[in-house]
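Posted in: Structural Biology > Protein-Ligand Complexes

Title: Requesting predicted complex, FE3-S4 cluster in pocket

I'd be grateful if someone could produce the 3D structure tokens for the following input. Sequence and ligand are given below.
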Amino acid sequence: MIDLQPTDKTHDEGRQGEALILDSPLKRNGKKLYIESYGCQMNFADSEIVASILKDDGFETTADYKEADVVFINTCSIRENAEQRVRNRLSQFGAEKRRNPKLIVGVLGCMAERLKSKFLEEEKLVDVVVGPDAYRDLPQLLNQVEDGHKAINVLLSREETYADISPVRLNGNGITAFISIMRGCDNMCSFCVVPFTRGRERSRDPHSILAEAHDLVDKGYKEVTLLGQNVDSYKWKSADADEDAAIEVNFAQLLEKVALVSSDLRIRFSTSHPKDITNEVLYTIAKYDNICNYIHLPVQSGSSRVLELMNRTYTREWYINRIDAVRKIIPNCAISSDIIAGFCSETEEEHQETLSMMDYVGYDFAFTFSYSERPGTLAARKLPDDISPEIKKRRLSEILVKQQEWSLRRLQESVGKSVRILVEGVSKKSDKDYCGRSDQNAMVVFPATEKIKPGQYVNVIIERCTSATLLGRIAD
Ligand code: SAH
Ligand code: SF4
Ligand code: F3S
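-- Reply #1 --
Done. Output follows.
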């Protein structure tokens, strides 16, 4: 079990004993928090940290914003349309606030960090704005709001990893969970807003990561995904006064430690960076059966010139070398990618290089995006966003079509085979079917039987597939 380090305020109350904690007027017992998350998995993991901090402050969570006392929206700034979705959602909360003027509306996460106090000026209904490193301050900020003030904390930190906070698992299936292993990003890809919204990279103490993994196993979880913007640069060093005695842990070593927590626990991780993924990491994946054979290795572009403009710090050849290493060391490894269409000055030939890279790798899956200029990034300051929306759209659709072909081909390779999956629960489309993921992260759907329970590993014979899902039946 992880020791819960109380926030400063509850720390004082804690010394006075449990009964006082429960009765404390400072606590908001019975108040309800609704929290909605956008963006990457890290943002979803952060919402679970927020829920934990506010649980210590007496809040319970609710899945219905109409019954909430506090509504938080944990936001993403990665592309313009991500921000637009948040603004649309905020206007819906505005309607609720007109009905219930006591409702507190808060904006958390990357958009809060990017826009800071501008949010309070632009969106009058917002009461509190909190950046990703300031969540411990939430109880105090809510006090300010209850006293009739607007409240904001968008300070970024070089140390905060929320290592001691035990996340409250939200909307979980009780089987798969995220574990944040680091925060921030030091890479400065020229298109990307994350270094500005999440601050400097810092790695979380491995002891607390392992404690969280053990705790999840004790609670019956069967899969963890280790999260960071660039997991391969995970590096933790013990603060030992004697330099020689200090212990260093890199990502490969961390992966191994988590894999050893339980052979029944599957390990996934995201995101890997092509410049940093080492053979040591690949050998560690190959060595442990419970580390999934799946790597998300975003290429962004297949052209070395565009990659240089993107400041990705690798070339097409380097990326191909990494793919070759994956194929050699982990022959059965699924690989997925992120791809941006129409980055500044991208020519037709360079776009073709992206398509040919897709053919070289044969990705199992890819997230594909049109380039969206983000204020304040290196690209926004130095490079004109000169590819027209029509061309971006056409290039994106060519990338999409190619990816669908590859996804289908990759899934077809499993037809007729037996695939081991972890049952996650009933399928979204039919409650007569169960769904779960293969080691390679493919979604598998099969008819539910009484013998099988979510959380079990089962072998499924694959009978057919779509471009997104494998369909089959339980092997006898
Ligand atoms: N840390 C991860 C990615 C985080 S953001 C990595 O380095 O791979 C997720 C993806 O969003 C990126 O990989 C990129 O493909 C996309 N993205 C980021 N900024 C973007 C922008 N300005 N326009 C379009 N896509 C963008
Ligand atoms: Fe953004 Fe690049 Fe960092 Fe990923 S590695 S979060 S794309 S700056
Ligand atoms: Fe979005 Fe922030 Fe994640 S910008 S993608 S929520 S780090």
